[in-house]
Amino acid sequence: MIIAIGSVILLAATCLLGVAVLLPSAPSVPLDRRRPFEPEPPSSLSRLALSGVRSFERLLSGRNVKLFSRPELENAGLRLTQAEFFLLVGIGACVGMLVGLVTVGPLVGLLLALMSPFVGKLVLGFLAGKRRTAFDSQLGDTLQLLSGGLRAGHSILRAIEAAATESQKPTSEEMRQVITETSLGRDLLAALNDTADRMKNEDFVWISQAIQINREVGGNLAEVLDQVNETIRERAEIKGHIKALAAEGKFSAYILIAMPFGIVAMLLAVSPSYMNAMFTHPLGWVMIGASFVLMTIGALWMRKIIDLKF
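Predicted structure:
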């Protein structure tokens, strides 16, 4: 009996040993970790958008198309290529045409489609203006970082690099671009002047001139930058006072320009037939054209009055 039990145990052990030898061993590292990373396949919409972008890139390659150029997109803070923005404008034109066709008619749809490039240009201008305003508001802190780095014993390039690291957008982007250009062999003053031209900032021109004068005649650049910073802060304070004083005039101009349209809309809502003679009689069309000309002249006149230069 004992011999039989021992034989069964020995046979079972032999079978288990054979199974352990014959079966493949489990990998020590999972397969998903040993294989290279494979991203998920793009969706059909992504493939369609990518093919459209590539088609626009082939269309624009070799042609000097200045509309929606790369410098304009960079000044607006958009990380898009020219072909991608053209595709977005085209999509906007299609959407505008569909909306106008469904709501009013084909003529309005065509008009909205033709307006899409102008809308894209306005959007780029608005974003670029907003970015320049943010750069101007951060200029005082940037000068403090530069002067602090110079007092700590760093060179001007190292101080600019520290400002690029510590500052917020868009100052960090512009300072990083200056560092990149100088590392590729470009002169520092030329890079700074290009930054002033891109940002259309007169105060940054002073900074570039201060650095240039310091390179020529020497001296304590940190103290010079502190004096420039104080001057810029005083100019910003005066600019704020001027904006506050001109705000009333701007608000009055907006009200006077919007008042005729508001009155016409109110009359059409209260009595739609009251304005029929204005839109059907030739004299009415002449009066409408004359009113638009006079309103344009008045708007330009008031803009000239409240747009103060100092």
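Summary: The chain has three domains: 67-132, 136-236, 238-306.
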